[in-house]
Amino acid sequence: MSSRTDHPRSNSVDRHAWLGLLVVLGPVLLVSMDGSVLFLAMPEVASAVSPSADQALWILDIYGFVVGSLLIAFGSIGDRYGRLRLLLVGATLFGIGSTAAALSASAEMLIASRALMGLGGATLLPSGLAVLSELFTDPRQRARAIGIFAATFATGFAIGPILGAVLLDSFWWGSVFLINLPVVLIFLTAAPVVLREVRSTGPGHIDALSVALSALGLLAIAYAIKHVAAYGTTPVTAISAVLGIILLTSFIRRQRGLDHPLIDLMLFRERAFTVAILTGLLSLVAWSASAYLSATYLQSVLDYSVLVAGMLVLPGAAVLTTSCIVTPSVVERVGRRTSLVACHAFMAVGLVLLLFTGPTHGVEWFIASAVVAGVGYGISFSLVAETAVAAVPTERAGSAAALAETSNEIGNALGIALLGSLAAFVFRTNGPDQAGTLTETLHIQGLNTEVVQDAKSAFVDGLHAAGLVAGLLCTLLALLAIRWIPASGMANSDDLVSRDAAPTDAARAPGTPEARTPTH
Q: For residue 464, which of 358, 355, 367 has the smallest C-alpha distance?
C-alpha cells in the first residue's frame, strides 16, 4: 500500500527535477554558444567596427578570459551565498551585455560589452551545474543529468558558428547577440518558480586578492602575447609578460596558505585528476583556435559565403555533440584511461589533417579534420565535467564544477590568444606586409591578384602552424595519460571519489570529516 502512495510522489519529484534541468540548460547553452558565435561573424564585425589586429583577438577572447578567470570565485560565492540568486543576477548581466554588444559602434565598446557578458557567464555555469546536485538525489539520474548538461555545453560551442552564419545571412551582425534575450527572459521568469535557493553550510569567505591576482595575471600575459604577434616585441609587452607571470605565481602561492582557496591545489596530487583538467584545457585550446581560423579560411581564403561556411561546419558539430552524448556509455565499457587516450589521439589526428588544406583547395580536408577531431572534443567535454563533479560532495559541487568549466573557458580563450596569435605572427612574417590581418588586407582597394594570393597563402601557413602545434600538444598529453594513469585507473566514478576525496578532505577541513563525506 505504501509503495502505491509513494510512487506518484516520486514521479512528481522526478518531473520537477527534469523541468529544473530544462530551465538551467537555457543559459548554459547561451554561455557556451557565445564563446564561438563570432567565429564566422568576424569578417562582418571587422567591417562594421574596424578593429586593429589585436583588438580583433580581444573581441573574440575577452569573453572567455573573463568567464574563465571568475568561474572559480563565483562557484564559491554561489556555494556560500545562494546559487539561485547568483543565477538570476548572472542572467541579468548577460542580457545587458548582449544588448550592449549588439548596439556597439566601436571596437572598444564591443570589447567592453563582451567582458560584461563574460561576467554574467561566470555566474551562470558553476551555479547551474551545482543546482543539478540538489535537483537529482539519485546518483544514476544525477549522472544522466550531468551528461545532458555537458552535452548541452558542448553543443553550444559547436552550434555557435552555425547559428551566427544563419543569422548573418538574413540580419545584421548585432543579431548574433540579440538572439540571447528571449532565452534570458524565459529563464528569469521560470527559474524562481522551478528552482529553489540552496547554499553550502560553513561557507567561509571569498578571497578578493586571489580573484584579482588570477584575473589580472591571465589578462597581462594575454596582452603580451597578442601584441608580440601583431607588432613584435616592445618594452611594454615584456613588462606585461613578466607582470603576468609574477601575478599568477603569487596566486598559486597564496592558494597554499588559505583555509578556503579558490583552487584546491591538493586535488592535483591525483595524477588522473590533473590529466582530466589538462584535457579540458587543451581540448578547448585546440578547438577554439582551429574553429576560428577555419572559419576565416572558408570565407576569406576559399571565398565561401557565410551561410555555406556554416553548413560546412555542420558535420563536425554533429559528430562532436553525438560523441559527447555517447561517451558515458563508452566509458563504462572501456574505462576513463582508454577514453582519455583516445580523446587526444582523435584530436591529434584531426588537427594534423588541417596540414593538407591549401589556398585554392582543401574543404574536404577541413571537413575530415572537424569530424575526426570532433570525436575527441566530445569525449573531453563529457569526461571532464563528470569527473570533477563526481569527485566532491554536493555542498562543494559549485567549486568543483567551476574548476572543470574554468579549464574549458580558459582553454577557449587561450586557444585564440596563443594559437591565434601564432597564426597572426606567421601571417605577419610571410604575408605581403599590407595589413595586420587577412581581412584587413583583402579590404585594401587596388590590390593585384598576386598580392591577394600571397596574403591567402600566408594565412594558410598560419593555420598549418597552429594546427601542427595543437596536434603535437594533444599527442604529448595522450602519452602523459598513458604514463600517469594505471591501466586499471579511473574505472568508475566511485573509484575516483574514494581515491581523491579522502586526502583532499583531510587537507581542506582537518577534524571535520563529516562535513566532507562524499555523497555518491
A: 355
Residue whose entry in the numeric block shows the C-alpha cell 599590407: 434
Q: Which residue has the cell 568508475?
A: 492
Q: How far is CA 43 from CA 39, 145, 456, 482, 494, in A?
A: 9, 37, 14, 41, 48
Read off the amino acid at residue 404: A
Percentage of the chain modeled with pLDDT above 90: 25
pLDDT for 518 beyond 60: no
The reported pLDDT for the residue numbered 375 is 93
Q: What is the DSSP letter of 136?
A: -
Q: What is the three-state SS of 217-258?
A: HHHHHHHHHHHHHHHCCCHHHHHHHHHHHHHHHHHHHHHHCC
Residue 440 CA to residue 169 CA, distance in Å, equals 21
| pLDDT tens sequence across 2-41 | 444 445 555 555 787 888 888 888 888 888 888 788 888 8
Q: How far is CA 401 from CA 135, 158, 334, 453, 491, in A?
A: 15, 21, 24, 46, 21
pLDDT in tens, 294-345: 989 998 999 998 889 888 988 998 898 888 888 878 888 888 788 889 999 9
Q: Are residues 416 and 288 in contact, defined by beta-carbon separation less than 8 angstroms?
A: yes
Judge whether residue 418 has pLDDT over 70.
Answer: yes
The number of C-alpha atoms within 13 Å of 382 and in the hemisphere containing its C-beta is 30
Q: With 90 as the cut, is the pLDDT of residue 247 above it?
A: yes
DSSP 199: -
All three cell numbers of 319? 559528430
Residue 70 dihedral angles phi and psi, to the nearest 5°: -110, -5
What is the C-alpha to C-alpha distance for residues 112 and 377, in angstroms, rounded to an integer? Answer: 30
- Rounded Cα gap, residues 189 and 339, in angstroms: 40
CA 1 to chain centre: 50
Helix, strand, coil percentages, rounded to 5, for the chain: 80, 0, 20
**Grid cell listed for 219:** 589578462
